[in-house]
Automatic annotation (TrEMBL):
Pfam families named among the record's database cross-references: DUF7685 (PF24734), DUF7686 (PF24735), DUF7713 (PF24828)
DUF7713 domain residues: 132-193
Domain DUF7685: from-to ranges: 3-46
Coiled-coil ranges per UniProt: none
Transmembrane intervals: none
Domain of life: Bacteria
Organism: Proteiniborus ethanoligenes
DUF7686 domain segment(s): 50-121
Protein known as: Uncharacterized protein
């Protein structure tokens, strides 16, 4: 657990911001509440705390997913983020949108909720048992997900969050082997798109 250097609140690694106010001064690790209060004061943003911080959505299989909702105020606008915590240190689905300062927060939340519903509306991984072995492959030769750092390794090895589940680089590679000899197209997109 990290502790906010401004208010002393305990926080997980999620929800902490490293802030450097002046060049040459040491950075400070602060909670999102303190960061948002600081940025709101600096940028003149009002009513920055008025929103529900939890929402539950069903996926295409009828399974409930509970999301923690947060927002960070930046000089270029507001970033809304929803995170599904499966376990204390394990994250499932995550969605983000960007809100311009002029946009109504309720409209931004509607866009965020629509993005969540769309993201939960289909699955990209197919699991089946063939001759006693579990086969994991891509449905329809398309996969969408998120790239994360795999903290099981000391180097810069990624892991992938697909359908709200973690997959190692090796597991993703094995799934791709069902398409051995085929060509592929890789597209990386910014999380608020």
């Amino acid at each position: 657990m990290e502790r906010c250097q401004w208010c002393g609140k305990d926080s997980s690694g999620y929800g902490m911001v490293v802030l450097t106010i002046k060049e040459g001064e040491p950075s400070q690790s602060i909670c999102e509440d303190c960061y948002n209060r600081y940025m709101a004061d600096m940028l003149g943003v009002e009513d920055y705390k008025d929103f529900e911080n939890e929402a539950i959505f069903k996926d295409c299989d009828g399974i409930d997913h509970c999301f923690q909702i947060g927002k960070k105020i930046h000089p270029t606008g507001i970033c809304w983020e929803t995170i599904e915590f499966i376990e204390e240190d394990k994250v499932g689905y995550s969605f983000e949108i960007h809100q311009e300062f002029e946009e109504d927060s309720n409209d931004a939340l509607k866009r965020l909720y629509e993005k969540i519903k769309k993201g939960l509306s289909q699955k990209y991984i197919k699991r089946e048992v063939f001759q006693g072995y579990e086969l994991i492959s891509f449905k329809e030769n398309l996969v969408e997900g998120r790239i994360e750092w795999d903290d099981r390794y000391d180097d810069r090895t990624p892991k992938f969050i697909i359908d709200g589940q973690e997959y190692s680089l090796e597991e993703l590679g094995r799934m791709m082997m069902s398409c051995e000899g085929w060509n592929f197209k890789l597209e990386i997109i910014e999380p608020t798109e």
